[in-house]
Structures are given as C-alpha cells and as structure tokens.
Amino acid sequence: MIFLLGCSDFYHNLIPSGENRIISFEIDGQIGEAIIGDNTIAIITEHGREHKRAIPRITVSHKATLFPITEDHMLWMFSAINTREEFEHIWHEINQSANLDAYLEDMIRRDPGFRVPVLDKAIDFSGPVIFLVMSASGRVRKYSWIPASSRANGKIP
To answer: Exposed (0-12), middle (13-18) or buried (19+): which is 140, by Cβ within 10 Å?
Structure first.
C-alpha cells in the first residue's frame, strides 16, 4: 500500500506572518551592504559624506509594515499628532515602552485619521533615528539607526 501526501500553501497563506525584520537598507553614498542586527542598522559611508537628509531604500519582511519614527512621517501618519512637542513625547514613549505591540496598536486604533506610512520623505540621519517594523500578526520590532562613517580599517565605531 502506498500513500501519497501533498502539501499546500493554503493554510500558510491564511495565517499572518510573524516576521518583522528589516531585510535590506541602503542610502546614497553607502559602501557595501548595511549591517542589520536584531535591533540596529549600521552602514559605512564614503569618507566625509554626511547624511543630513536622505530617503532610504528599505525592504522589510513579507507583509510587514515599516514605521519611520521621524517628525515628518509621524505628523503625516497620525492626525492626532499636531505639534513637535507631541511628536517628541511619543518618540520618548516609544524608546521607553516595554510593549511596543500594544503601544503602536493603541495609537493606530485611537486615531481615525491614521494613514499607512509611506517612505517618501527625507530623513535626517545626522542623529539617532528609530524605525518600527510591524508584522502582519501585529508584532513590533524596534530598530535604531547607528550613524557610522568609513574608516581605513572598515570597522564601525
């Protein structure tokens, strides 16, 4: 007696992915691939190149959503945020939150004017930048940008 079993993606396609990672990150002047850790992004850039404002090219996990936590992006995404002070308060809350899944979900639910983020505005990379990646199942991962310039030995400071 021979049994043949087949496998289908039917159930896999019904269950949302839990992946919430940045897969690739690139900005103009970058040397080589970005170094992407569990919660950090670092690149090496051409010597002397500053990235005051750039639009990065970022790829995230399948069905995940990228949230750039910058003033311009947050003011566009959330109609409830109207001032720089409100943005700075939220930025600090995100840095301190022990449960980003619940925090971001609550922000989205409370804002009837919420818009899905679009990465079409330049970001000031001269200081710290936070990116959140939300999986299709609602799990959130926080990434911090680490500014790094190229060095002769190619190591990140």
So the answer is: buried
Which pTM value belongs to this model? 0.82
Give the tens place of pLDDT for each residue, 60-88.
Answer: 999 999 999 999 999 999 999 999 999 99
Residue 152 lies in a domain: no
User: What is the three-class DSSP state of 73?
Assistant: helix
Instruction: Summarize the confidence of residues 43-66 as an average pLDDT.
Output: 84
Cβ distance 87 to 74 under 8 Å? yes
Range of the domain at 138: 10-146
Is the CB of residue 35 less than 8 Å from the CB of residue 155? no
Q: How does pLDDT run across 15-25, given as a tens digit for each residue?
A: 667 899 999 99
CA distance 157 to 136: 34
The CATH number covering residue 105 comes to 2.60.40.2340
Q: What does the DSSP 8-state code read for residue 54? A: B
